């Protein structure tokens, strides 16, 4: 098992500023023959020091094997988010896994339209006897029902090769003390009975809604110390582990 400290200027899924603030760099990390490439950003880039304000962010991650072919299967991803970020889901409609567990992406978005907090795409490579097949699906993030007093996100996608497989994955978001305010844990189920591996994820997250007579934002942030920090730990089926933190400067206003 190998590990790598990530000290790039970009977080894997919601890096600060690269797209909207005009930064040119992106994170490219190579560990044990696995290559990850990430880019992303949020707006507005300049944030108050003390007050939380609404933000929208987007990001993408691509994974490949350096020698060619698909990357190893991702078993678990643990993401810790900076204490200067805040999630507000109170009053926002929720979507339970059983509501969309057996429907296509378009139907899922229609059924739980008011609970959508993010959209994007996901791609995978599936190893069949005839060769590797690339599949793609719309990706939807719904506000999920709370678990043990913590918010959740419901991740929905669907593949049709070699047969139809619908994913409705509940991702718990644990509130924490200290340097990181939230921890999200994703454990993807096997794709195509273990023949598939994720190769691409892109997502845009942001939702404004009214609750209790007030306008609210699903995600908001401040910039108290000039840095937004994200920590990630990614565990793959071949034993490869990518573990580390990323610091990204944020502007103040």
Order of helices and strands: EEEEEEEHHEEEEEEEEEEEE
Could you give the count of β-strands?
Answer: 19
Q: What's the number of helices?
A: 2
Helix content: under 10%
Largest sheet: 12 strands, antiparallel
What is the distance, rounded to the nearest whole angstrom, between the alpha carbons of the first and last residues? 44 Å
Tell me the domain tally: 1
- The helix/strand class is mainly beta
Rg (CA only): 18 Å
- Basic shape: globular
Beta-strand share of residues: over 45%
Describe this structure in words.
It is a single chain. With about 250 residues, this protein is mainly beta. The protein has one domain (about 25-250). It is built from two helices and 19 strands. The chain has helices spanning about 95-100, 105-110, and strands at about 25-30, 35-45, 45, 55, 55-65, 75-80, 85, 115-130, 130-145, 150-160, 165-175, 180-185, 195-205, 210, 215, 220, 225-235, 240-250, 250. The strands form four sheets. The protein has a twelve-stranded antiparallel β-sheet with strand order 1-2-5-13-8-9-10-11-12-6-17-18. It has a three-stranded antiparallel β-sheet with strand order 4-16-7, with no helix packed on it. Strands 3-19 form a two-stranded parallel ribbon. The N and C termini lie far apart (about 45 Å).
